[in-house]
Amino acid sequence: MASVDRKAVAAVLEDIAAMLELKGSNAFKVKAYENGARAILAFPGDLHAAVASGELKKVPGIGPSLFSNIESLVTTGSLPYHEELRAQFPPGLRECLRIPGVGARKVKQLHDALGIDSIEALERICLEGKLAGVKGFGARSAEKILRGIAMLRATAGLHYYTRARRRADEVLDLLQRTGLAARLQVAGSLRRRKEIVRDLDFVAASGRPEELGRAFRDLPWVDEVTADGPTKTSVRFADGMAADLRVVSDEDFPAALQYFTGSQEHNTQLRARAKKMRMKLNEYGLFRADSPEERVPAASEADLYRALGLDYIEPELREGLGEIEAAEHGELPRLVSEEDLEGVIHVHTTESDGRDSLEVMVEAAREVGYSYAAITDHSKTAGYAGGLNEERVLAQREAIRALRQRTPGFRIFHGTEADILADGSIDYGDEFLANFDLVVASVHSRFGLPRAEQTARLVKAIRNPRVAVLGHPTGRLLLSREGLDADVEAVIDAAAESGCALEINGSPERLDLDWRHCRRAVEKGVLFSIDPDAHATREYSYVSLGVGIARKGWVTPQSTLNAKTADELEAWLIKRRGGSLPDL
DNA sequence: GCCGTTTTCGGCCCGACTGTTTTCAGTCG
User: Fold this and answer.
1) Residue A475 burial (CB < 10 Å; 0-12/13-18/19+)?
2) CB of A309 lies under 7 Å from some atom of strand B
């Protein structure tokens, strides 16, 4: 049987949606396929099993038709309906949909009028000045499309959260200094703490919108102004990042902030709810449906949610994945926050590939406010990272013993980030692992193993009682490397069963485990270790990125390993390994 | 194509901006 994972299924559904759009099908049918793709990506269980049992039919957004399509895909590896559609459209035509500012209607029109069937053909027509003849396209259309093509090629416009956050803070600072904004906040996916951000959204309350808009256009990084209306200004910075500013009245601000925080899907559901309750929600406020002039008073986002019969929903949760239902029933979790963290796990020093010494890393952890740190340098297999052989481990143990004497009131756990070998065993061997207080086990090699082998490898490591934490579980690198191919659901089940914690690695390029997987794991009782993977003192700040991902994944303090106190962690470690920690 | 405490048929979120138009369709979020 062909192995079709959820990403592949979602990609097919998205492809179908794109082609239905090109066909000019009912927009809601298109939407249904897009929603289906999202639902599959977010579906936490085993897709094959859910198809076999029919459980998938119960997932919102998967109706009879989508179910049978998905069933065909996972059981036979292909879908005739998809093939039929593909045969009708050249692949280049679907590529054209990715150009910003170019949608299905325009692509279809250009295909019909000029036979354009690829981005290259479209570019040529624009350059040759042959576009303006087509009805609906004028002199400026070609220019705009060419810019869109350039943009698409440049970066695909995606940015790490950290980079976007830094730029957003700079923008907020400069706009704040103008004194033109009574209220000013960043919204959008950045506020929702998505790991990857496409553009920045700012919302302001101001009595002088034109001046504020001008200040926005005049920001030092602005390369191009892409939209410029009385309430909305869009720019692109020289580094390719796009940013929007919306200016509203003070009274409208809460609704505007809510609206521009999104996500699209969350807002769609929220508006449908408002409508059902005979109200109307838009970016200016909440109104009575039968008397549109009558505003439902709301001084804050919390007021808006309350008026809709909902508990306040934290921005991180607003992904349209059941948070509204949970808020309705008072079942939202108390999300973990940085204040809940008692200690830091997964810390490197100069002994392997860190840039600061043991003493400096420990002191910095104490200054951050932690009451313990688990030092986890690389293991012997990681020669490229200066990994420690057994002899050096024992020497480090002595160094830590000595440092403990000089660091009263602060607990130092001696750990390792040990390599999981291809067969799932840990490179030091189980016996030697007993020398550590805490073992983080990670995959650093053989990413290409077949799925079944890769899964078995991770499960074996998780079931090893010496292993406390599975480090960066999928090994992905955002924007550059797919994670290893493993059955995450099986990994989660193994963690739940054995009690091994899964890491939420806060390194900006990792943010692994992905938040989409966390929620199901939390429900199953899995513990998470929210770690910086720090290679220098300043990288302790990565913990806050990990916390953002944990919050998106509905992780609570109770589900967080390093929200335990030092004593609790020690007790947990002893229980996990079924024996005492090394006598130090 | 999906969905149901108005409904198994008839809805499906809503508005700003652009570029082309003289009243609007397309795109985006």
Assistant:
1) buried
2) no
**Reported confidence tier of residue A480, pLDDT bands at 50, 70, 90:** low
Tell how strand A183-186 and strand A199-205 pair up.
Answer: antiparallel
Phi and psi based region of residue A510 (left: phi greater than 0; alpha: psi -120 to 50; beta: remaining): alpha
A291: tokens are: 């008397």
Contact indicator for A376, A438 with CB cutoff of 8 Å: yes
Exposure class string for A449-465: b at 16+ Cβ within 10 A, else e: beeebbbbbbbbbbebb
The owner of tokens 């998205």 is A14
Report the C-alpha gap between A105 and A135 in whole angstroms.
Answer: 12
Nucleotide closest in space to A60 (CA vs C1') = B2
pLDDT of A583 above 70: no
Whether the CB-CB separation of A546 and A504 falls below 8 Å is answered with yes
- A26: which DSSP letter? -
Q: Is A88 (CB) below 7 Å from strand B?
A: no
Spatial separation of the C-alpha atoms in residues A516 and A562, rounded to whole Å: 21
- Sign of the CA dihedral A27, A32, A35, A41? negative
Measuring from the CA of residue A32 to each C1' atom, give the nucleotide at the shortest distance: B1
Does residue A329 lie within 7 Å of nucleic acid chain B, judged by its CB? Answer: no
- Per residue in A482-503, pLDDT (tens digit) is 788 899 999 999 999 999 999 9
Mean pLDDT to the nearest integer, A532-554? 96
Nucleic strand B under 7 Å from the C-beta of A514: no
Q: Please tell me the predicted confidence (pLDDT) of residue A333.
A: 95
Tell me how far apart the alpha carbons of residues A318 and A139 are, in angstroms, rounded to a whole number. 41
Q: Which residues, at least 6 apart from A87, have a Cβ–Cβ distance to it below 8 Å?
A: none
What is the torsional sign of CA A403, A404, A406, A408? positive
CA distance A243 to A232: 11
Spatial contact of A298 and A255, defined as CB atoms under 8 Å apart: yes
